[in-house]
């Protein structure tokens, strides 16, 4: 067996072990050769309030310990550019995004023909998923054991949130086509969203989502991730599932176990966003996907 093949298999084993342990970043010793890595995305990529926060611009709330930064340490590319920004929507991939005390340039402008790795995670803000959770939390006060949020969003006979996901799908497809056009030689990976809620019941009032709405909202998140996976497949790019591996790591779990903070964070992170442990886990999952592509 060639030396390069042995190194690749060693890297697969190392990544797999790390993903199972989810304790430390993967060693860069046998990492796939990446020369230029560009990270695109919204707040689930940027890592708002996870120390330390970058200032380029400060309003993006971009952490130097988010999953792209951790992945870059594993891969040690010659060039790494993270242009993810909290609050980003699909339009911000091609237009400037106004943020507090500054502006984030169009994210796709970071792509060049010599880019050889791109990760992208966006569309949650287009669907409005996190604000919906906040609205559902308020609704739970009046009916903690019912499903007031589902009732509100399906009142007209059509599920408004499902409609938003369906309308966002072709825009994600168009975005991925633009990424491939600007970086034709790059390996492109769409990164799914970490699980937010447990499958059923929840943990009201610790996380104030009515019991009947937990399964409803979890189903919507599965639909959102499924849409991203489908669009990635249609575009001929990779998809990294972070939802399934995060079972038992949702907002209802104890500090130190959960990968996503609740409406009242218990670790430095934005409400209903990944914490440092979640970012470490996603970096390992993306690294594992890269390793499998080399095997």
From TrEMBL:
SUPFAM superfamilies named among the record's database cross-references: SGNH hydrolase (SSF52266)
Taxonomic superkingdom: Bacteria
Signal peptide annotation: 1-23
Entry keywords, A to Z: Hydrolase, Signal
GO molecular function, one term: hydrolase activity
Record domain SGNH hydrolase-type esterase: where: 39-280
CDD domains, alphabetized: SEST_like (cd01823)
Record has Transferase as a keyword: no
UniProt xrefs under PANTHER family: LIPASE 2 (PTHR37981), SGNH HYDROLASE-TYPE ESTERASE DOMAIN-CONTAINING PROTEIN (PTHR37981:SF1)
Protein name (record): SGNH/GDSL hydrolase family protein
Protein source organism: Allokutzneria multivorans
């Amino acid at each position: 067996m060639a030396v390069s093949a042995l190194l690749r298999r060693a890297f697969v084993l190392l990544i797999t072990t790390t993903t199972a342990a989810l304790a430390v970043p993967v060693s860069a010793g046998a990492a796939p050769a990446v020369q230029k890595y560009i990270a695109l995305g919204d707040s689930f990529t940027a890592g708002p309030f996870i120390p330390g926060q970058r200032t380029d611009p400060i309003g993006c709330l971009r952490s130097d310990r988010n999953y792209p930064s951790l992945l870059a340490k594993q891969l040690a590319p010659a060039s790494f550019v993270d242009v993810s920004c909290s609050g980003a929507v699909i339009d911000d991939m091609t237009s400037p995004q106004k943020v507090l005390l500054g502006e984030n340039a169009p994210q796709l402008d970071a792509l060049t023909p010599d880019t050889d790795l791109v990760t992208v995670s966006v569309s949650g803000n287009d669907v409005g998923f996190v604000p919906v959770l906040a609205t559902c939390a308020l609704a739970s006060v009046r009916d903690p054991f019912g499903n007031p949020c589902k009732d509100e969003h399906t009142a007209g006979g059509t599920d408004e949130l499902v409609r938003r996901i369906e309308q966002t799908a072709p825009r994600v497809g168009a975005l991925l086509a633009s990424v491939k056009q600007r970086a034709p030689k790059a390996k492109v990976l769409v990164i799914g969203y970490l699980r937010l809620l447990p499958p059923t019941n929840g943990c009201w009032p610790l996380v104030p989502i009515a019991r009947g709405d937990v399964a409803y909202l979890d189903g919507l998140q599965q639909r959102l991730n499924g849409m991203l996976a489908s669009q990635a497949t249609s575009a001929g790019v990779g998809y990294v599932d972070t939802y399934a591996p995060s079972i038992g790591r949702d907002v209802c779990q104890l500090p130190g176990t959960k990968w996503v903070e609740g409406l009242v964070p218990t670790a430095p992170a934005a409400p209903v966003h990944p914490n440092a442990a979640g970012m470490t886990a996603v970096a390992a999952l993306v690294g594992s996907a890269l390793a499998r592509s080399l095997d």
